[in-house]
Fold this protein.
Amino acid sequence: MKGGKLLIFSAPSGSGKTTIVRHLLSKPELNLAFSVSATSRPRRVKEKNGEHYYFMSVSEFKKHIRDDDFLEWEEVYRDNFYGTLKSEVERLWAEGKNVIFDIDVVGGLRIKKKYPERTLAVFVKPPSVDELKIRLKKRSTESEDKINMRIAKASVELATAPQFDKIIKNYDLDVALKEAEELVAGFIADSKCE
């Protein structure tokens, strides 16, 4: 694979990483394109295939694993697979873009390990686990059991923060957005990373 830079944003669900990634994508000077992940989880009401995720069955996902089609993948919850297709990154690099990921911590660190020089891995830290639970409940997209699973996973994910290049503390969204923009712009401008 050849091409641009890789910008990873990872965090527990509800930390604000998706909001930060959307903000960065709105900045044309950063020349970013979003890497759409593949998943075997069911599609939510407003989600579109190829825009939010590439939705596939568990058997399709497992076939892609066997065929070594993923840059990284993980079974996040039982039969809920997530992964980054190599073809997705290659497509975006062919368009001359820097690729940005909104990805779980395990996947983000796997990509960083494969491309250490061209990857900026950023961990978005929430104010607290209690605040995460409030944010997840406000979404009204998941059951109480799912929310509790995500909260339990958040403690494990928070422990991985020191393995990332940078940590953005999302206590104040405006401050976090500005910090993310400055980090990404600086990394893209740094030609030593290529």
Q: What stands out?
A: The chain is about 40% helix and 20% strand. The first strand starts at residue 6 and ends at 10. Residues 69 and 87 are 8 Å apart (CA to CA).
